[in-house]
Amino acid sequence: MKCEEAQELITALIDNELSDSERSSIESHFKGCVRCRFVHEQEQALKREIRAAGASVSAPPGLREKILSELGIASQRDEASKRWEWLAWPAKLTLRPALVLTLLLLLALPAIYLMRPKGPSLPLFALEGHKKIVEGAYAYAKEESREKLKEQLLRSVEGQFAPMGYDLSAVGLRPVGGMAQEIGGRKILVTIYEGTALSISCYTFLGTEKDVPDDATAYFDTEKKINFYTFSRGGVNGVLHREGKVICILVSELPMEELLALARSKV
Amino acid sequence: MEHLYRVAFHLAKEKGEAQDIVQETYARALGAYGQFTPGTNMKAWLTKILYNFFFDHFHQKKRWVLVEDKAGQKDEEADYWEKVPAENPGPESQILLKERNTKITDALRKIPEEFRAPILLVDMGDFSYAEAAEIISCPVGTVRSRLSRGRRLLYKQLKGYLGAEDKVTARR
To answer: Which of B26, B84, B108 to mutate to test the interface with A (most CBs of A within 10 A)?
Structure first.
């Protein structure tokens, strides 16, 4: 093999893109060619430098928000985007939740992951907690009046935040009681709703979207402009969303689609 | 998004243009959702949208700085790797690293887009040759040859900035 012929094989060797026979050929050539061995080392070093130079480039801080904003208001494209309107534009934009969700995940999850708080996961605690409520392992304060229950729970956290209130009568559920808990120094308010064969627990606490479990699936509600996150453990489903500084999680054995629809109905 | 911005940054002339390209990529991805197959590589799909947009609307207007790259050219080709200065640049500070990265970025912009794109995709984007071929719509063998050629062109551009330490190490 001539050195000129070896060049492409050296490139592909570095990128681990050689077939077995090509690898044998180039390795055999290396045995008798100091120059090509040297070229191989130099090209490897160059690849490392290119990769490092690439990693040194970061997107400007505002770009992520700009794109998120655009994805949320797809029909009202901003000035930067309008600059390209003279170009052939594909079919009218329509949002498909799964795709929007995936794009949003690509945009937002790395940042959420890096800012993840330390300490116990309250959403996962909520799933476990709901199981215990259903099993009767927790003694909670009985109160069927929504207003009185809200008042009691609000008092238990000294008015720092109020429990998220749902009207679930449409699905045959009514509030039956509630309790305040503390996990990892964070206070949680739980409102329990029950029907004939179903119960839903609503967990409320102060937090951010950093509290979202790693494996949660995100749904961006384009009308309400907020994210809903769904997650499950052992047949128990949870839907999390944030309103200001308050995180709300609905937990139930109800199918995820129905639970998600209930969570969205409140906001 | 960081990956898309990096590709756009190295394809485009300026940062503002790169931002617009990334923004447009996401908008187009939404418009072309029917073409995405769930379970396939979304990063590659988005990169293809970005590349197509760039290629269709920027490529022909762009005036690339010409570099010597005629097929069969013998000039420095035979010994271009050896033309690295022997002196060791010394310990690298953050400033030097930044300077090196800037030099590489500048050098990348000086090589023709057809050779630059495979470098961006394979070396910076960690795509396989097959994925890169799909993105830039060419055979896998073309990716390999352009990548090989592109790295050599880049090395020529970077003479004096890279390799001195490696060369010393290599000769030990």
So the answer is: B26
